[in-house]
Design a protein that fits this description.
One of its GO terms (biological process) is sperm capacitation. GO terms for molecular function: identical protein binding. One of its GO terms (cellular component) is nucleoplasm. It is found in: Cell projection, Cilium, Flagellum. InterPro entries: ROP_DD. There is one protein chain. The protein is mostly helical. It has a domain at 63-203. The protein has 9 helices and 2 strands. It has helices spanning 19-33, 38-51, 76-89, 101-110, 115-123, 133-142, 148-159, 172-185, 191-203; strands at residues 98-100, 130-132. Strands 1-2 form a two-stranded antiparallel ribbon. Helix 3 packs antiparallel against helix 6, helix 3 crosses helix 7 (148-159) and helix 8 packs antiparallel against helix 9 (191-203). The longest helix has 15 residues, at 19-33.
Length: 205
């Protein structure tokens, strides 16, 4: 004999007091980040939330990057999210020199970015299990399109501790290291030009 349907009333249903705020913050985060795959991104969001890790959430909604040759989904905002997540894993809150490729690929996927794009970036600086984070970040900035200076502008805006809209300053040593690295990958940029530019820049500081 089938059981009678269970009847519930409002008094029988307990709603955890923290649930409304969790759902509200989740909804706002999804709107700001605009993930391509909401379910995949949600899994990464709640996993990070439960572990106390930085959430895969952009600071604000971004407009598409017009200089990209193809729409890969990668933006400055998403690179900034990755940087926050990698920095969180670094000892004493500093920049992590190397990051495990497996861990980085997982973070990349949680942002709904195409895995083939990730592997293409890694091939630009071949490695086995780990990659130098600053180099990966620089390569990501370079794929957003434009010139070497445009890539450096993206990098400075990601790394700076200046308030948003400020000069986006970073240590000269960091700027010089990344500029030299990206310039070395561009056959049209000669080492003499790079040295001259960095020397002139240092004199103005």
């Amino acid at each position: 004999m089938p059981l009678p349907p269970v009847m519930f009333c409002a008094q029988q249903i307990h709603i955890p007091p923290e649930l409304p705020d969790i759902l509200k913050q989740f909804t706002k985060a999804a709107i700001r980040t605009q993930p391509a795959d909401v379910l995949l991104w949600s899994a990464g969001y709640f996993s990070a939330l439960s572990n106390g890790d930085p959430l895969p959430v952009k600071d604000r909604i971004e407009m598409p990057v017009a200089t990209q040759k193809t729409d890969t989904g990668l933006t400055q905002g998403l690179l900034k999210v990755l940087h926050k997540q990698v920095r969180h894993c670094a000892p004493r809150g500093g920049h992590k020199e190397f990051v495990e490729l497996q861990d980085l690929e997982k973070k990349w996927k949680n942002l709904c970015l195409p895995v083939e794009k990730f592997r293409a970036l890694v091939k630009l600086d071949p490695c086995t299990d780990k990659i130098e984070w600053m180099k990966f970040l620089a390569l990501g900035c370079s794929t957003l399109g434009g010139s070497l200076n445009t890539a450096m502008k993206h990098l400075c805006e990601i790394l700076t501790t200046d308030p948003e809209g400020g000069p986006a300053r970073i240590p000269f040593e960091t700027f010089s290291y990344v500029y030299n690295y990206l310039a070395s990958l561009d056959p049209e940029v000669h080492s003499a030009e790079t040295e001259s530019y960095l020397a002139a820049l240092k004199e103005t500081m």
